[in-house]
C-alpha cells in the first residue's frame, strides 16, 4: 500500500523516466528522511516543472530524496562448516573441490536484516524478518518464496539445519503478518505469491531432523498458507460430465509491477486508451510473475487459442541453422525451436497449471503426514481426502493418455495445451498419480521425453521448445525444472525412468560444472545448446550466485556423486556418443545466432505453415512435428 514503493504518481514518474536500466533499482532504495517528506519534495518538483519534469530533474530528485538501501548486512551462519559430511560421499576429486567452493557460497550469500528495518519500516521496501537467510544472488537481494525450497535443501545437505530452519521460520513469519507467503520480502510483492512450497520445505526439514516440536509449534501457520491457496485460486472445470476443482494463479491488483514498472507500462502501451483492458493485462502480468515463470509462452493464448501468435516457417529456420552449423542438426539431432507468441497474448489466469496443482497435492499429503504424526486423526483424514480429490482432478483433466504426460489446461478454450514445458513432469515430482499405475505412467513419461527431442540438448532440459526471447522459454534451462524431471523420474522406482534420471543428472551436473570452471560463477539459468553457458532473455541481465542452482547441485551430488565426474562423453540414454566438448566447441556461438535467426524469421509468416502448425497442436503426438523436418 506504500505511496512510494507500490503505487502513486511518484512511482510512475520516476519509473517511466528510465533513470535506471533496471526498474527494481528504485523500489529497493531507502527514503533518506521520511515518506511524508519525500512526497512533499515530489509535490514541489511537479509544481515547479508544470508536472513535466525532465530526465535530469527526476534523477536529481531521486538522488536527493533516496539512497541505496543499507538494510542488509552480510551474515555468516553459525552452523556453517568448511567440510560438510556430504563431501566425503563425492568420489570425483573435481566435483568434490567444486562442492567445497559452492559450500563457501552460503557465507557469501548469507544476509541478515538490520533492526532499523523493524524499527522504521516505512523507510524501506523491505519487509522485516527475524532470522538470517540466504539470498538467491545478483539483483535478488531479499528472501524469495520458491527459490528458498532449493536453498533449504542445499543447506540441509551441508549440515546447516539451524540456518534452514531460520529460512523456513522467516517465511512463516510472513504468513503471520500477511496471511500467506508473498513473492518475496518486499512490500511491492505483497499482492502476489509464488509457487507454494513452504509445506514442502517444512517436510524436508522434518525428514532430516525429526523435529516434531517444530511442526507442532507451526502447524497452524502451514494450514493457513495451504488454505490461502485453496480459498483463492480454485476454479471449477467440467470434464466428461463431471466437475473438478483445480488451482490457477490469479492475483488481481491494479497497476504495473513496481519492480518492473517501465516494462509493464510499455507492454500495455497499445491499450493506453482502454483503461479496463490495460488493468486486466496488469493482472495477467502479475499472475504470470506469481507462477515463477516470468515470462513464458506457457502463459500465451492468442486469438486462435494457441501459444503461437505469428510464427516463422520451420523449414526456413532449419535451413538457416543447417547453413550456420551443420553440427546443430547432424550431431545434436535437435528439434527446431519455434517462434511462439508475444507477451501481449498473456492470459495466465485462464490457464490451469500442472505444476501448481501437483504442488498443492504434495502439500496436502504432507499435511496429512504431519497430522498423523501429531495424532490429529480427523484432520489427517481431511487432508487425505483433499489430496485424493486433487490427484483425481489432475488425472482427469490434465493427464493425456495418448501423449503419456500431464498438460496445462486452457479454461477459456476448454482444452489441454499440448506443448512441451518442463513443468509437465511436475506431478511425477510430487507423486501425484495412482501408485498402482506407476509402471504405466513411468513408461509413458520416458517415452514422452524421448519423443519430444529434448534429449538432444546436452546443456540441460530447456523450459520449452519455443523461441520467444522470454527467459522461461528455449534455450534456457532452470534448476527447478531439472529437479521436476530428474527427481520425478527417480521417484517412480522404475528402472528405465531411473536410468534416464541418472543420465539427465549427469548432464546437468556437467553443464553446471563447466560453467563454473569457465566463469567461477554459478548462474540463475543456463543454455541448453551450449554446455555450461549462462542463459539470457527476459527483463534483466543474467544473475549469478545462485541459490537454487547451488541447492540442486548439492541434491544431485548427494544422489549421484558416487557415479563419476565431469566428462565429455555423452553416450547413453538419448545420446549419439558425441563428445560434449566437441558439440560445445562447434556451437560456441550458435545459440546467439539461433536466437537472431528465429526472431528474424517471425516476419516470414507462411499460410501453409500456419495450417500445418494448427494440425500440430490439435491432435498430433509430441515430437511428430520433428518428423516433417
From TrEMBL:
Record field: compositional bias (Basic and acidic residues): 610-629
The reaction(s) this protein catalyses: alpha,alpha-trehalose + H2O = alpha-D-glucose + beta-D-glucose
Keywords, sorted A to Z: Glycosidase, Hydrolase
Enzyme class: hydrolase
Keyword Hydrolase: yes
GO biological process: trehalose catabolic process
A Gene Ontology molecular function term of the record: alpha,alpha-trehalase activity
Alphabetical list of SUPFAM superfamilies matching this protein: Six-hairpin glycosidases (SSF48208)
EC number: 3.2.1.28
Protein name: Trehalase
Species of the source: Frankliniella fusca
Lineage start: Eukaryota, Metazoa, Ecdysozoa, Arthropoda, Hexapoda
Amino acid at each position: 500500500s506504500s505511496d512510494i514503493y507500490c503505487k502513486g504518481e511518484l512511482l510512475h514518474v520516476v519509473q517511466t523516466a528510465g533513470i535506471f536500466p533496471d526498474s527494481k533499482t528504485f523500489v529497493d532504495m531507502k527514503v533518506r528522511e521520511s515518506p511524508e517528506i519525500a512526497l512533499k519534495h515530489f509535490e514541489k518538483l511537479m509544481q515547479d516543472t508544470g508536472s513535466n519534469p525532465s530526465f535530469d530533474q527526476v534523477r536529481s530528485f531521486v538522488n536527493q530524496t533516496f539512497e541505496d538501501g543499507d538494510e542488509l548486512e552480510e551474515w555468516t551462519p553459525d552452523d556453517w562448516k568448511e567440510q560438510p559430511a556430504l563431501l566425503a560421499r563425492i568420489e570425483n576429486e573435481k566435483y568434490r573441490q567444486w562442492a567445497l567452493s559452492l559450500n563457501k557460497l552460503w557465507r557469501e550469500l548469507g544476509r541478515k536484516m538490520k533492526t532499523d528495518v523493524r524499527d522504521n519500516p516505512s523507510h524501506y521496501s523491505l519487509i522485516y524478518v527475524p532470522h538470517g537467510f540466504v539470498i538467491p544472488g545478483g539483483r535478488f537481494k531479499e528472501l524469495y518464496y520458491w527459490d528458498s525450497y532449493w536453498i533449504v535443501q542445499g543447506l540441509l545437505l551441508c549440515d546447516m539445519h539451524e540456518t534452514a530452519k531460520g529460512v523456513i521460520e522467516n517465511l512463516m513469519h510472513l504468513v503471520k503478518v500477511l496471511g500467506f507467503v508473498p513473492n518475496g520480502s518486499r512490500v511491492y510483492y505483497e499482492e502476489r505469491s509464488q509457487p507454494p512450497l513452504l509445506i514442502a520445505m517444512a517436510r524436508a526439514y522434518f525428514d532430516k531432523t525429526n523435529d516434531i516440536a517444530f511442526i507442532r509449534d507451526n502447524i497452524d501457520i502451514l494450514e493457513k498458507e495451504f488454505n490461502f491457496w485453496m480459498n483463492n485460486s480454485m476454479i471449477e472445470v467440467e470434464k466428461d460430465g463431471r466437475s473438478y476443482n483445480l488451482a490457477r494463479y490469479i492475483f488481481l491488483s491494479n497497476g504495473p509491477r513496481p519492480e518492473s514498472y517501465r516494462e509493464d507500462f510499455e507492454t500495455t502501451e497499445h491499450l493506453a486508451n482502454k483503461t479496463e483492458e490495460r488493468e486486466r493485462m496488469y493482472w495477467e502480468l502479475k499472475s504470470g510473475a506469481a507462477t515463477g515463470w516470468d515470462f513464458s509462452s506457457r502463459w500465451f493464448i492468442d486469438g486462435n487459442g494457441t501459444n503461437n501468435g505469428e510464427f516463422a516457417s520451420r523449414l526456413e529456420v532449419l535451413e538457416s541453422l543447417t547453413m550456420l552449423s551443420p553440427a546443430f542438426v547432424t550431431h545434436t539431432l535437435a528439434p527446431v525451436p519455434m517462434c511462439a507468441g508475444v507477451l501481449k497474448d498473456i492470459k495466465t489466469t485462464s490457464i490451469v497449471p500442472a505444476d501448481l496443482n501437483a504442488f498443492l497435492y504434495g502439500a496436502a499429503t504432507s499435511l496429512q503426514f504431519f497430522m498423523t504424526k501429531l495424532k490429529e486423526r480427523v484432520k489427517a483424514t481431511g487432508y487425505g481426502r483433499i489430496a485424493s480429490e486433487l490427484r483425481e482432478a489432475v488425472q482427469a483433466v490434465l493427464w493425456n493418455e495418448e501423449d503419456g504426460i500431464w498438460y496445462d489446461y486452457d479454461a477459456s478454450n476448454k482444452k489441454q495445451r499440448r506443448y512441451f514445458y518442463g513443468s509437465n513432469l511436475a506431478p511425477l515430482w510430487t507423486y501425484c498419480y495412482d501408485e498402482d499405475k506407476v509402471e504405466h505412467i513411468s513408461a509413458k513419461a520416458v517415452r514422452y521425453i524421448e519423443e519430444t527431442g529434448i534429449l538432444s540438448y546436452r546443456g540441460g532440459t530447456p523450459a520449452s521448445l519455443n523461441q520467444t526471447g522470454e527467459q522461461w522459454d528455449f534455450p534456457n534451462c532452470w534448476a527447478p525444472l531439472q529437479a521436476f524431471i530428474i527427481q520425478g523420474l527417480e521417484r517412480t522406482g522404475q528402472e528405465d525412468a531411473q536410468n534416464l534420471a541418472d543420465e539427465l543428472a549427469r548432464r546437468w551436473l556437467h553443464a553446471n560444472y563447466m560453467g563454473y570452471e569457465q566463469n567461477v560463477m554459478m548462474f540463475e539459468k543456463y543454455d541448453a545448446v551450449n554446455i555450461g553457458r549462462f542463459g539470457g532473455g527476459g527483463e534483466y541481465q543474467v544473475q549469478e550466485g545462485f541459490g537454487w542452482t547451488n541447492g540442486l547441485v548439492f541434491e544431485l551430488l548427494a544422489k549421484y556423486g558416487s557415479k563419476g565426474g565431469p566428462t565429455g562423453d555423452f553416450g547413453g540414454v538419448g545420446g549419439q556418443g558425441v563428445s560434449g566438448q566437441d558439440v560445445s566447441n562447434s556451437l560456441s556461438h550458435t545459440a546467439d545466432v539461433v536466437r537472431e535467426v528465429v526472431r528474424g524469421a517471425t516476419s516470414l509468416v507462411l499460410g501453409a505453415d500456419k495450417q500445418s502448425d494448427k494440425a500440430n497442436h490439435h491432435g498430433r503426438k509430441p515430437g511428430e512435428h520433428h518428423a516433417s523436418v
